Amino acid sequence: MQIAIDLAKSAWGKTHNNPMVGSLIVHQGAIISKGFHEKSGSHHAEINALKAFNETPDDTTLLYITLEPCSTTGRTGACTEAIIRSGIQKVVIGALDPNPNHAGRGISLLEEEGISVTFGVLEEQCRDLNLIFNHWIVHKKTFSALKVAMTLDGSLAASNGQSKWITSEEARSDVMTWRRLFPAILVTQKTIDQDNPRLTSRSSEAVFCPRRFVLNRSLKSLDQYMKYSVFSDEYKHKTTVVYGELASEEAVQKLKALEIDAWRIKESDHGIDMNDFFNRCAEENLCGIFIEAGAQFGTHLLEKKLVDYLYVYQAPKLLLDSDARALGTCRKTSHIDESLQMEGVIHKTFKEDHLVRGFIKKESL
Q1: Is 214 helix (H, G, I), strand (E, B) or coil?
Q2: 20 to 30 A Cα–Cα from 29, which one of 3, 112, 330, 333?
Q3: Is 292 assigned a catalytic role?
Q4: Is it the case that residue 304 has pLDDT exceeding 70?
């Protein structure tokens, strides 16, 4: 199953709004056929594995799949029907279909045909493979994930805003991997002004550019826009400015003159109405967005429970700056029970740096 998971990752970030799935066939104890879901609309993983299978199934033949096979026709036909026709009598499944309307149905159909089914093998790893898809298919909402990098004493930047670099090159390379997974990325205008980032993924020889969103409520810094990479590089057509409905007409017209794609979003007492923004993302079929935020915006997103998932990269450094920028800006607590909780937590180490990631427990805070 681990080999099937690794196989599924061959399509990392390429299958939206479908899941990544890996499959392989073991015959007489040896792997003789492999397949994975390459992109949305293409053959599913088990179909690709079956197409490459040239043996006659017997009692030693097993089909491994990271995700329960689909039981509805869709664009590519029901995989359960193909498995039944293949003659394979043993199927091993990692995770159930996350769609509550379909979960378990594929297994039932196989078992009704006398096929032996084992499921739940490396289930957590198989579910983790499709964080974005699982949320999208269940809630029909954009999966929002916040990424922060901090020192051991919780600082995201020095008091003057300088933050390059808190974490190591290895940890920053992992961030590039996640940027490659998500179809969209969001930063604030403050980040653009301070860092002039490209917001691309450079985890391989080929550069990948997700849909790039810049949050600029009142359309500040427009005179500087052409010097920023996201508005002038070869991927500038993938950059969208998000501004508030109260922005001045003069600023809006100046933005239009720059011929930059823009979304006008409702405003709330706290600035841009992020729920309205996420709804617009869902309407645009963007199933996931990776948010790289500073202390103030990150605190707002967490306090208002506006993000679903959190990535915290921490370096073994102590800034010891009383005015350093840290999460919790403008928020006061009086009891430890007011803490935000994470669940489904996963840890990973990059030399000396450490990543903690997991779901935000929405009933916390």
Answers
A1: strand
A2: 112
A3: no
A4: yes
Q: What angle do CA 231, 234, 237 make, to 5 degrees?
A: 55
What backbone phi and psi angles, to 5 degrees, belong to 76?
A: -120, 10
- Mean pLDDT in residue range 248-253: 95
Helix (H, G, I), strand (E, B) or coil at 289: strand
Contacts of 8 (CB under 8 A, 6+ apart): 20, 21, 22, 36, 37, 45, 66, 129
Pick the closest to residue 16 from 40, 46, 44 (CA basis). Answer: 40
Distance (Å, whole) CA 327 – CA 302: 9
Given a contact cutoff of 8 angstroms between Cβ atoms, the answer to whether 203 and 171 are in contact is no
Rounded-to-integer distance, Cα 35 and Cα 40, Å: 15
Q: Tell me the C-alpha distance between 88 and 59, whole Å.
A: 8
**pTM value surpassing 0.70:** yes
Compute the residue count for the chain. Answer: 365
Q: Say if residue 364's pLDDT is above 60.
A: no
Taking alpha carbons only, the member of 179, 147, 127, 171 closest to residue 312 is 147
Neighbours of 134 (CB within 10 A): 19
- Decide: 187 and 196 in contact? Cβ < 8 Å: no
Catalytic residue among 38, 46, 112, 292: 46
